[in-house]
Amino acid sequence: MALEVTSELGGPLRELDVELRLAAEAIGAAAVPTLLELRPRVAEPEDGVATLSSLHLDGEGDPDGLMLAACLAAHGAYVARRGQPDGVSTGALAIARLLVWAQRAAVIGRPLHVEWIGPPARAPKAEDGTHRVLARCALSHGPEGAVRRAEAIALVRERPAAA
Length: 163
Known about the structure:
By secondary structure, the chain is of the alpha+beta class. Helices cover about 40% and strands about 25% of the residues. A 5-stranded mixed sheet has the order 1-2-4-5-3.
């Protein structure tokens, strides 16, 4: 893959136990069908490598090792399925961050329903009981380290607890 991670962002990823990393990657794989449906842009890095420096989620900051492993797995599978295994997609990474966050919330007992997901400029108005959650991605590429950014927003609603 043409995507690397900064040492600061990737630190928690390197500390993950192998079994936990595999479980996180399986969670990331579950995001691929939605990514394929939304089809965020995939590009080839100018110098063959892009470096992920931030994958921020409002209220949480940058991801921990589990979240990062899941997002990278979703991204890798997405670009491969789009026929560009060496490509990068800042949009796919931002969307994956939201999708994996929602899956993780469901696993820990706070089930969320994602009503809409996509670029902030296209987001519909949030209705009562719906919250906006924003993810931001930044990666650098090219000889001068040009920064490419993407944002994705999810409109989510908490599902009532099962009786």
